[in-house]
Amino acid sequence: MPARPSSPVNHRIDRVVLTGGSSGIGNALLHALLTLPEPPAICNLSRSAPTVEGAEPPRAVHHLSCDLADEAALAKTLPRLREWTHSADEGGRLLLVNNSGFGGFGPFPEPDAAHNLRMIDLNVRAPVELTAALAGDLEQSGGTVVHIASTAAFQPTPYLGVYGASKAFLLHWGLALAEEWKDRGVRVLTVCPGPTGTRFFEAAGFREAPLGKRGGMTAEKVAAQILRALDGRQPLLTTGVGNRVLSMISGRLPRVWAARASASLLRKLRLERYQEGREESRDDANHPSP
Ligand SMILES: NC(=O)c1ccc[n+]([C@@H]2O[C@H](COP(=O)([O-])OP(=O)(O)OC[C@H]3O[C@@H](n4cnc5c(N)ncnc54)[C@H](OP(=O)(O)O)[C@@H]3O)[C@@H](O)[C@H]2O)c1
What we know:
By secondary structure, the protein is an alpha/beta fold. It has helices spanning about 25-35, 70-85, 115-135, 135-140, 160-180, 200-205, 220-230, 240-250, 255-285; strands at about 15-20, 40-45, 60-65, 95-100, 145-150, 185-190, 235-240. Strands 3-2-1-4-5-6-7 form a 7-stranded parallel beta sheet, sandwiched between helices. The model is unreliable at about 1-5 (pLDDT under 50). NADP nicotinamide-adenine-dinucleotide phosphate binds next to helix 1 and helix 6.
């Protein structure tokens, strides 16, 4: 189990609705929240239940099993979520973290249109629906919304095009909402992590996580930076200094150039994947299984 981040959160949080606490960044955030001096009540939404290891004393996390990419399943779950938000310390400050998400790597529409549409449903529609459903509670409690976008949001991302565009939606919408809601006492923080060591890359169809020489960030570091940012007032957090510099540069490039630059980077990864796949099938042909 990786080291837990220290969690010096001064901003009081009483209730948390978190999506995707079963893995990666969401799971690290869940653990970090549970180790706060005054841990909030947490309700997790994902398809599988999160494991909560080593929280002392052990704390229960309320889990609502839901496929958030399925509009009907989410609609069915919303009344149970409202029930939970009302029963858990009603009136206490609410934090909503829209974290669940997945990507898809390959030339459009690979693997197929349905995969891309599910991605839009999970990465875009579900955060809009959850934020709308909890808007009243967020306002009454002076709460906070955190959107987990990505550094992929700062430029077009060929071969990862629908994913990058879904994160660009979250970034733009998050920053817009931060302005709209600040007079209503609701804080909106949009987080853009760069490559982070989670199951994300495997799920997105990469053969290997493109985490760079330094190995990317750990989910625990990303979670620690998010918790620290909850104490501040900024509407945008790009995690890690290197990611901040790179995203500033790519965000300032003319979009067409930025698309070209990221195409050549991502095409290289695509080509490597394709060549490795061919070598593997050649090996299989040379060494057929018994
Ligand atoms: N890792 C990176 O490099 C990176 C970089 C930038 C941004 N991000 C963003 O960070 C967020 C978390 O990803 P991660 O890196 O922690 O990846 P991860 O380890 O694959 O976790 C993804 C989480 O999303 C949940 N999820 C997936 N499909 C779902 C569905 N249909 N309904 C409900 N929940 C679903 C998963 O839970 P279940 O499978 O149990 O449903 C899981 O908890 C994502 O929004 C991702 O886009 C990641």
